[in-house]
Design a protein that fits this description.
four-stranded mixed β-sheet, two-stranded antiparallel ribbon, disordered C terminus
Length: 225
Amino acid sequence: MASGHTRRLAAASSASRLLSEAGVDQSRKVDVFGLAERLGLWLAFFPLDGLLGAYLPEGTGGILITTERSTPIQRYTAAHELGHWRLDGGHDAALDTESDVLGRTDIERETLAQVFAGALLMPPPLIHSILSRRNSTSLSPLDVYTVAREAGVSYEAAARQLHHLDRITQHELRELLKVQPLTLIIHESGGLVCLGPRKSPSDLRRYVSAMNASASSGGHLRGET
């Protein structure tokens, strides 16, 4: 019988094959909602009580997504439900809570769907494309936020996928997860300010002023963790 590590690798490989089969450009942000519809699955958004999403095999099979969470969480949930559809053969229903989709779980079926979701939304070509535009010798919280923003996922999901891809160590993952939540302000010039969770409104104004000043000289990325 295959080991848990082997089954996780198989789940990630299955996500990669699905992207290839669907003709998805893996160097660009993945339109997971469009992908589900292209695969013939119905997709619906409702305020779900206690659930982030569900896969239901009724008809051609379909996905329910809560309306109560942010777009990055909705995207990751849709990818998770696609994982159930792909890995379970589309036959078994899945009703997924927050811990099933985002948490550490002892239920292997959910763990494999989590791995699938990360690989689907953050394939190696996309991660390489994003990081190749940065001049970092080691990945900082700002690098992880850049991956999250451009891939359309949460900061934590981006950090965990970077670990799955061996771009960061387990120790680096733990350290990166300690710094969130961060407040990001993205200036229209492309400049970025990263503020720690305890910054006050006056800090925000000070950093916005500094960012505007930097934008006039080229819009460089600035940050503080």
